[in-house]
């Protein structure tokens, strides 16, 4: 098992380079765009990303997950290459067809999405073109990840975002193109990366496309679309609700909170990138369930501690990067809930691992669809009353429900000793702890540093009080440590 830990850590570390680079670029763009875009344009940027995110799922059709499954399920390289070809061509053709169809309804849709109406008529069209290239890059980068070609993955992964970001800044700052400049830069950057990836992987394509391979991918991936749409509901519709139910200004503040809260992706994304191929490759090992159990607890413990620590610097951090735009300074209280939701999102991949192994993607989709309905109803009811706090609360609640439902379904077909009741108790106690910290921050309580030290101590206490880690386990680990033998020991 030690070798498995080393392998997962090695893969995660390699993929973390891309993630860190991407987040650095995102933090670099944030103060630039809020300086050169009006508050409404910044809100429109967030809304555009929301719409294109859901459409990207329709382009992707779950092909990335299906490709990861069949890559490890088949025995020969020729079959893997045929699956890659089928995935890329299918997604590409669907994306092109969608863009052509959208051309005829572009103006009508834009008038519904934006308060500016005709002013942003071509923004969505440009953004959709960028999305098609982004989806194809995602599939090709995913294939490099499955091949464990770390250096090409890192180079092209960084180029994908860094190149697009530099070009976007040029169009926004240099050419004064405003919101449209962001997506024009992305189109050019994504095209260049796609060209490089196609050249690199040209020998891995097999023409013509073989229909049986496409059918296998669609059969596995399409049932995941409701799951992906649920992710969109949980991660993106909140911006639309806030934009139209409260105001574009509140949507801009929430978008700022979400972007800064995505710092947690530095911790989680590298693990997520490594997780799929890693878990699929060890699914038949007898000790895999024990490894999954330890990973689940590790993600929860490490993730919650990072969330706690960042919450202590959230306010000065947002003030620093928002600069002379004080309207964004009020985003800090919401960050911990949004980042903790990301931790719970990562956790579900481990909790429901058995359903992925057994191809029960339909069951996963049903769970996500049910939870999405709960989220939508809760958001519509509570956002007018509690504003942005309703969005944060519904995010945490729904991801928690997803983990609960997946646990009970997955355990029936692939038992893993998670100690799930202890995990749930820890989560509830952590939410209570963070609520207390936020209350003190918002009321500008004197001596916050001392309270922060108490919060860290309380975090350590609830690890043991919840039963997530037992004191007995620590003593057992201590007893298992090898002792240095001496002459008296051998007598």
TrEMBL record:
<keyword id="KW-0472">Membrane</keyword>
<feature type="transmembrane region" description="Helical">
    <location>
        <begin position="420"/>
        <end position="440"/>
    </location>
</feature>
<keyword id="KW-1133">Transmembrane helix</keyword>
<keyword id="KW-1003">Cell membrane</keyword>
<keyword id="KW-0812">Transmembrane</keyword>
<feature type="transmembrane region" description="Helical">
    <location>
        <begin position="217"/>
        <end position="236"/>
    </location>
</feature>
<feature type="transmembrane region" description="Helical">
    <location>
        <begin position="151"/>
        <end position="173"/>
    </location>
</feature>
<feature type="transmembrane region" description="Helical">
    <location>
        <begin position="122"/>
        <end position="144"/>
    </location>
</feature>
<feature type="transmembrane region" description="Helical">
    <location>
        <begin position="364"/>
        <end position="382"/>
    </location>
</feature>
<feature type="transmembrane region" description="Helical">
    <location>
        <begin position="256"/>
        <end position="275"/>
    </location>
</feature>
<feature type="transmembrane region" description="Helical">
    <location>
        <begin position="388"/>
        <end position="408"/>
    </location>
</feature>
<feature type="transmembrane region" description="Helical">
    <location>
        <begin position="12"/>
        <end position="39"/>
    </location>
</feature>
<feature type="transmembrane region" description="Helical">
    <location>
        <begin position="295"/>
        <end position="314"/>
    </location>
</feature>
<dbReference type="GO" id="GO:0005886">
    <property type="term" value="C:plasma membrane"/>
</dbReference>
<feature type="transmembrane region" description="Helical">
    <location>
        <begin position="334"/>
        <end position="357"/>
    </location>
</feature>
<dbReference type="Pfam" id="PF13440">
    <property type="entry name" value="Polysacc_synt_3"/>
</dbReference>
<feature type="transmembrane region" description="Helical">
    <location>
        <begin position="83"/>
        <end position="110"/>
    </location>
</feature>
<feature type="transmembrane region" description="Helical">
    <location>
        <begin position="452"/>
        <end position="475"/>
    </location>
</feature>
<protein>
    <recommendedName>
        <fullName>Polysaccharide biosynthesis protein</fullName>
    </recommendedName>
</protein>
<feature type="transmembrane region" description="Helical">
    <location>
        <begin position="179"/>
        <end position="205"/>
    </location>
</feature>
<feature type="transmembrane region" description="Helical">
    <location>
        <begin position="51"/>
        <end position="71"/>
    </location>
</feature>
<dbReference type="InterPro" id="IPR050833">
    <property type="entry name" value="Poly_Biosynth_Transport"/>
</dbReference>
């Amino acid at each position: 098992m030690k070798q498995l830990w080393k392998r997962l850590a090695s893969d995660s570390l390699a993929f973390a380079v891309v993630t860190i680079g991407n987040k650095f670029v995102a933090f670099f763009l944030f103060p630039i765009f809020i300086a050169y875009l009006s508050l409404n344009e910044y809100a429109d940027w967030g809304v555009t990303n929301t719409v294109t995110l859901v459409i990207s799922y329709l382009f992707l059709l779950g092909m990335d997950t299906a490709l990861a499954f069949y890559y490890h399920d088949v025995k020969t390289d020729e079959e893997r290459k045929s699956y890659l070809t089928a995935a890329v061509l299918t997604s590409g053709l669907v994306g092109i067809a969608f863009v052509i169809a959208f051309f005829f309804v572009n103006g009508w849709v834009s008038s519904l999405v934006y308060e500016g109406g005709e002013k942003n008529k071509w923004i969505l069209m440009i953004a959709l073109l960028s999305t098609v290239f982004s989806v194809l890059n995602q599939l090709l980068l995913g294939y490099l990840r499955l091949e464990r070609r770390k250096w090409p993955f890192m180079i092209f992964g960084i180029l994908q975002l860094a190149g697009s970001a530099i070009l976007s800044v040029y169009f926004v700052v240099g050419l004064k193109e405003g919101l449209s400049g962001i997506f024009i830069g992305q189109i050019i950057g994504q095209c260049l990366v796609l060209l490089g990836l196609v050249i690199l992987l040209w020998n891995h394509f097999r023409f013509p496309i073989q229909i049986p391979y496409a059918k296998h991918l669609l059969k596995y991936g399409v049932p995941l679309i409701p799951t992906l749409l649920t992710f969109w509901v949980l991660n993106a519709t909140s911006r639309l609700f806030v934009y139209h139910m409260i105001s574009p200004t509140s949507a801009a503040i929430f978008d700022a909170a979400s972007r800064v809260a995505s710092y947690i992706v530095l911790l989680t994304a590298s693990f997520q990138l490594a997780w799929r191929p890693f878990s699929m490759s060890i699914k038949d090992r007898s000790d895999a369930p024990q490894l999954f159990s330890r990973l689940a607890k590790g993600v929860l413990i490490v993730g919650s501690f990072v969330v706690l620590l960042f919450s202590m610097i959230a306010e000065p951090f947002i003030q620093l990067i928002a600069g002379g735009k004080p309207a964004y300074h009020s985003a800090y209280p919401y960050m911990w809930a949004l980042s903790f939701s990301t931790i719970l999102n990562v956790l579900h991949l481990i909790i429901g691992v058995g359903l992925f192994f057994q191809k029960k993607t339909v069951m996963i989709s049903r769970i996500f669809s049910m939870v999405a309905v709960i989220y939508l109803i809760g958001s519509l009811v509570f956002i007018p009353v509690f504003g942005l706090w309703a969005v944060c609360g519904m995010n945490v609640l729904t991801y928690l429900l997803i983990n609960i439902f997946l646990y009970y379904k997955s355990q029936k077909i692939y038992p893993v000793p998670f100690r799930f009741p202890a995990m749930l108790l820890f989560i509830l106690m952590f939410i209570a702890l963070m609520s207390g910290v936020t209350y003190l921050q918002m009321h500008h309580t004197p001596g916050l540093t001392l309270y922060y030290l108490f919060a860290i101590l309380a975090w350590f206490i609830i690890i043991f009080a919840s039963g997530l880690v037992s004191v007995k386990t620590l003593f057992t680990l201590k007893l298992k440590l090898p002792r240095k033998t001496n002459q008296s020991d051998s007598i």
